[in-house]
Each structure stands twice: as structure tokens, then as C-alpha cells.
Amino acid sequence: MADARFRDAQRLFQHDAAALRDLGPTLETTVTPPEPPRVVQSDVIESTTVRAHRIVDPPSVGFDAFLDGAQESKVIHYADGVPIVFGRIAAVVRQRVLRRMVTWKRPLCRSRLYVPRDLVPPTLWMRAVDAGFELVDTSDRRTDAGWTADDPHPFVLAQRALDAVKRDREAAERQLAEEWCATQQDRLFIDGSIATSDRVAAAPNAIGIIKSHRTLYVAGAAMRVVQSLPVNHRSSVIRVEAYHRTSVASWYLRIRDSVGQDPMWGLLRVETALPDIAASPQAIADHATVISRWILAELMPLSLPDSRWDKMVYGIRDCEEFLRSLRA
Amino acid sequence: MVATERRPNTPHEFHFWTALASPVGIGTIVRVDGRPVDGLIPHIYGIVVEGFSYTDLMSPLHDVIGHDGTPESAGHAPTDRAEIRLYTAAVLRQIPDEPLQPVPMGQVFLATEDDVAVALRMDGYLREGNRTGIPIGVYRAGGTDSAIYLDADFLVGPEAAHLNITGVSGLATKTSAVEWMLSSIFAHFPAGKGSVAAVCFNVKGPDLCFLDQAGTLDDRDRELYEKLGVPAAPFANVHYYAPYNAKGFSLNTLRSNEALLHNVTPLTWGLREVMRFAEVLLNKDDVDAKADALIDFIAERVLDKDFSDERLGPTRYRVQSFADLDKWFRDVLRAMEAADDQSWRTHHVATIRKVRNRLSNISTRCAGLVTDDGTVSDLPFGNFEDRAVYVVDVANLEEDAQDLIFARVVSKLREHLERRDLGVKHVIVFVDELNKYAPSDGQDTYVRKMLLDIAERGRYLGLVLFSAQQFRSQVHRRVVGNSGTALYGRMDADELATPGYLVLSPATKTKLATLEKGQLMVRHPHFTQPIFVRFPRPAVMLGRDGAERFPQAAEVTLEHAVVRSLRQLDPGITLGWVKDVIAIATEEEVIRARNATLHTRPDDVKTFFASQFRRIVAPRQPARASTPPLRTTPADDPYGF
Questions:
Q1: Which of A296, A297, A316 is nearest to A306 (CA)?
Q2: Measured between beta carbons, which residues in chain B are less than 8 angstroms from residue A304?
Q3: How much of chain A exceeds pLDDT 70, in percent?
Q4: Per CATH, which fold does B145-267+377-546 belong to?
Q5: What residue ranges do the domains of chain B occupy?
Q6: Testing the interface with B: which of A103, A304, A317 to mutate, by most B Cβ within 10 A?
């Protein structure tokens, strides 16, 4: 995090004795993840129970583009103990042309200051606005907030800023995905859920791949089936529904052998638009198998040295590297 | 451009990356446009000296894992890894020159033709009215086709001079490059700098034997000639010189075909010409201080002088040939023996015998070049012609004779240039196999000392050395070090591993090791970095082509050799006439007569040639001596019959 805008933000407060010299790691690595692990029961739409299905046919190349986003947040100043967070988000679609990745359209990049307006002096807010910064008010005026203006805990404030940055990042990803789905026929590999956008969740050419499994959409025996999926096997297709989210079809896919590893090793969850109501179970199964073959085709090249290489396809790693280069 | 802490830009190099399909390669010249400073855009010119390509793969093992250890599956990956072409360029020039700073960040462009001229500082010597550019070839990279010029002031003098070319044998680079350079110099040498000629020593095979014959050129060559403004034609004015073979019948050259003899002149020297260079033929063991003193004595007091000595009796000696010298030695030694003396004029008898032995031996060791009788046929010192090439063919000679020829010709050139009476203002001397004549190791020889002298002081005289060798590292450092311009053809990897090439990047070395025919790397005082150029094939016949088209004349009889020689002066000479004239002459007399005729080049060849022989006296029947009659018997002789 060393671009010109970040340095501008630092300069904004450098005259202040409370300005941070050692900014330390980003909030993404220090603030506790907000989402607790949970299990959600889902309906099976391929058949009646969740089973393991072997992907018999060889992998085939089906994706034409990859979408991913990135975010980075740092506290750059404490105003009377209130953290001022500089956040930067970006999202990109990298299209595969003749086996090489090129950027589709322009990547979306945005940097903002995340400040609880109620808790800082008005002069600070105005100074930042005058300096040309886009500010996001992270004040919480909900009644059920865990804090009040009188006793803010700095960690909670930082967490709220981090949430705001995340929302911005998801919005950028959503915007790009919607633009793609509105204009392109080619298939897009989205790193993350497609359920955040109605348009994307309904698009036939958008496939969401989820690598983190803090929420498991299978329970009981189905969970055991998923956890013990052999490599090159997928689970039965389920319907995933969530609050404020569009329902999508989903299944688990084991892309790497997890023998000797934890049960989540090489395990992905795939999201696509819900099939037609009239679609037969076989059609749903075929569709899931074809998409699984597309995903398996993306295992090469390996995404090492990324620590998530067991779940990350190279196209997404390429997006991340691209986004990393933007903030270098 | 890219610059990192580990790989920063400096005043002498910078880094940039390109698209994978970019035409940039090693040797490509690029221009960097920096950000404006005080309204001026700084321009930095560089030449690519190193290239890197890598992907985001951290470890080869990752690829093995990714493809399950099966290389064939690598081709099935739907995506190629992100890959970079990263280049390092050495700075050729920064504008403005001051202050000299690390190369600023900016955009990198392929150099245009104008950029190349600026980058190589050619703009300084290609100005109209003060143009001293000598084209050496074409820089061809990234779609740019740009003529590259050397500065005549730095190639032929006086600012710097000399050219050295290195390259492996057999790729037609060294000789071809020199032939091309001579054509280029003859076409572009500025009129204001005076006249120029070339003396080439043909040291091996038929390399330089057909410079006046047209060679084979293709369209690409002609385009290059046209672009560089050099006529695609063989040399118009070439003179060949070659000694005779040991028998003295015919010239010892591969250019002995009768159709080409019109401009081949014998090269023969007598004692006078050789004596000054006796040192060349005598090794260190021979020429100790005592022998040196005697040789000096002979040169100063005996040679071409009327010499007499009371101990030699009343004879007055005038030593002008090896035969005269041998007679003089014989008489000196005989006189010493007669007087039972061990020394004569402070010279010990052993020294005299040793020097006699060594000097007399010269005409044997250099038979065909050195004549016993002192006949001289030489290069036209004093009458050199502008834009003429004088080829001295020493290819078939013994090493001693080669050294002698080289030493004397170059010394004479130097003398005449010092006196400004050679006929031309500048002479380019081309010597191939320089590692033989000026080796980096071994004992100091006369020839090496002379080459060092040319290399270090020749430019002030207009005596310019163009030299070539296979291994530059084996040539004396001061000779190659004083060559202002250096050309490199394809190089041997072992040679490139020697310390002399440490300044070149590994990529440049790789390129040097794989250069095609017609490509050279050029170092020149104006170029801050070596440049790669292409040059056309010389417009002269290749040695091997010439040897096939004009096969060497077969060994001939003395009569045929004389006919062939004299026909150059008078085509009407017939074999029958020659046979009649030389019928009773000895072989030695015939050769002497022929040499004298060729040297004099009389109007009436027949008369002159015939006059060289002893007059033939018509046989006469001796008159019968009248014997006085016996006394008649007296009539009254009682015993008479």
C-alpha cells in the first residue's frame, strides 16, 4: 500500500502528533473475521439426498474470463482514539485470449477514507473533503449498535470500517459481473458468490466459486458426504438460499485429493443460476457435471505459491496478481 | 520502464519490459522519453544488452506438481502463465548530457533512423559541409533500417585510427568485411582529407587474389550498397605483386592465370633491399652484439661502396649483390687464413664465418624473392595512386620471406609517408593472421615491433593498420588496444571466455557466438556501446570462386614462362622467337634477362630482351696455318731419296 493517494492521506495527518509512523499490517489480517462458522440445511434439487458423483469425463475448457476483487485497509490516524481508515478496493475481469490473460475493460479501483463522522471533529472531516478525499461515514445510527458515540471501542470502529471496505469491494465486483453478464455471452468464473446480485445470479454464463466454507450449506449425513468427497467428485446439486440474497443452485466439488489433509482441502462450492423449474434431475446433474469439468480444467497451472493453491485456479490468481500490481 | 531497488536505473543502464511479440532483441536501439523538465523532454538512448524472460512460477517443482509429473500434460493447461520479457539497455547517450543522472522513468520507443544517428553521435560527423562518415553497414532491428557510419577522422586518422577485426575462420567475415570497408572508404573518404590507397598482404589462399573481378551479389546486397552509397563494383585499380617461385620461372601466386597477369608484377629484391632488414631473418641467437656490429659494418662500409683493404690486396670491391657479397666474404676469409689472423678489423673470424653463413643463406631461404644478382622489382613507392589497392601475395612463401616482405614494405611506406612523397596521403595496410605477426606472447620480433610502432604512431603519418585474426586474445594488447575501431564477426565460445570480453554482457556474447554471415559487432570511439550491423557481400570475386574460374597456371618450362611474362609487354612475342633467343643461354641468364626486361619495360621488348644475352659470334673456320715447306733435298745429296 504505497501509491500516491495513500501517501496523500498520510500527509493529511502528518502534522498531527498522533499521526502513525508505523502503520503496521492491514486490518484484513488483524481484525477478527466477523462471520462465525455455521451450518445451513439446504434443499437437494438434483435428487433427494446428497450423494457423491464422480466426474467421469475428462476436464474441458469452458471459462473465458475470471473475476476477482481485492481490498486493503489501514488505520492511518487516530483522532482522539477514533481510527481513521484508508481503504482501497479494486476488481477486475481478466479475459483469456489465446491462452493468455488480458484485462477486460478497465479494472474498477477506488480509495476512500472511512471515518465515523459523529466521533471526529468536524474540522477533520472538512479537511479531508477539502483535500479531495472521498469519505465514507462509518457512524452507526442503528439502535442495536454495540456501542454509542460516547464509548466507542477502537476495535469495533475498525471492524466497521473494514465491513464498509468489504461492501465497497463487493459492490465493485458486482458491478463488473453485471456488466459482463449484460454484454457478454462468454462464461465468467467469479471468485465468490453470485447471489449478491439478482442479475448475475440469474445469468447462465456466470459461475461463482466459493473457496471459504465458514458456512456449510449441508448438514448431517450430507455434510459427511461432502467432507469425504473423493477427488474429481461433486456433491448433488442443492438450492442455496440466504437472507438478502438470491437463491442459486450449488454443489461441492473436490478438485484435489484430500488424503492426509483437512476435509476442506481442495473443496470448492460452485454456484450457478437455478435451473428451470421444468428441468429434469438428469439435466441438472449434467449441467453440474459439465461445469465441474470446466473447473477441473483450470487446475493447471498451479497457483503456488499462494497458500490457497489447493482451491484457487490460476485465472483467479492472475486477477489477484493484477490487482496487486495496481497498488504496488 | 521498470526500476526497483534490486534492479535500479543508473546513468549507464536502465530496464524495461515489452509485449511478448515485441521486435526488441539484443542489440536493439531504443529511445526513452522522460518526463519534461523545465519544458524539455529528456531523451535517453540505449542499446539492449541483456534480456530476461520468466513467469510467475516460483519453483520448477510447482510445475511438476501441477502437471502430476507428466510433461506432456503441460500443453493442456488452458492458460499460459503470466510471462515477462524484461530487457536491460546500456545507455548510449543522454540528452541533455549534463547533469549526468540515472535514467529517469519514461516511455520506451524503438529508435527511428534519426534516433540512431543521435544515439551513436553520428550527427556530429554527418553534417553537411563537414561530413566524414564512412558507412560500415546497416543497423536493422525493430523495423528500423539505418545506415551506420564510422568517422573517417577516427578510422584513418588523425584523431584515432586503425581497425581490427576478429572472428572465426570459414565464415567469410574477416576478409569480406575488410574488402567491403575498403570499397566504402574509397567511395566516401572525404576529398578534403586527401588521397588514400591500400596495401594488402594476401597471407593465405586466394583470398585477395581477385579484387578486380566482379563477384556475385543478390538483390539484398545491392539494396545495401545503394542505401550506403557505395558502388557495387570491384576495385577499379588493383596491382598485384608476387615473388617468383624457387626456380624463378613463374610467379609464386594463385593469381597466375594468364588472363589475369596484366596487373601482376614480380616482387624481387637484391642485397641492397634486404640488407637493412637482415634482422628480420636472423633470430636472436644469430644476431649477438658482435654479429650485429659486422652487419652494420657491411651495410655502412661495404654495400654499394667502393671498398678496398690492404690485406685484401689491390682489388677494389663494389658489393651490390649476394654473389658480390659472397665473393667479398671469401676473399676476406682467405686473406685471414693466409695471414693466420683470428680477426679482421676487430671482427673475429668465427663471427665473420657466422654472418657469412647467415647472410648468404638468405637468398636460398627467400629464393624467388631475393635474387643473387641484385635485380629489383618493387612496389611503386613514390608513385602510389589514389584509391588504388596494392596486393602483395605472400601466401605461398616461407615464413621468413613473408616476414621480410612485410617488414620492408611497411618500413618503406613509413619512410615515404614521413617524407610525404609516397604519392598518397594515407595508406591502409591490411594484415590478416595478426596473431602470427604480433602475438601476445613469445619473443619480440622485428615485425611485432614494427606493428606496435604503426599501431601507436602510424595515425600521425597516415599509415593505418587494418588487421584481422581469429583470436583477438592472442594478439599483442597494444596492437589491438590502439585500434580505434574494432569489428567482431562470429566468435568462438572459448575466445569469448577470455578476459578481453568481460565488458560484454552474457547476452551480447551469445549473440556474438551466433552471428550470421554478413553481421558484425562494431566498436568505434563515437559509440559508447558495441553496435550490431549488417554489411553486404563484397562486390569482388571470392577467393575460392576466382580459383575455380581462373585456375592457377600449371608449372611451365622456362621458355613458356618467359613467353608468358614478356607477352604482357609485347603480345607479339612467340614461343619460337624466345626459344631462338635463349637457345644457348643458361637458365640463370634467361631469368636475369627476363627480369631486367620486365623491370625496364622497354618500348622494344624483343630487342631489349635479346640484348641481355652475350653476343653470339658466328662460327668461323680457322685459317689453315701455312707450314713452311721442308727444306728440299740437295741435288747432290748422296743419301737423298
A1: A316
A2: 58-59, 62, 65-66
A3: 91
A4: Rossmann fold (3.40.50)
A5: 1-73+80-111, 145-267+377-546, 278-365, 556-611
A6: A304
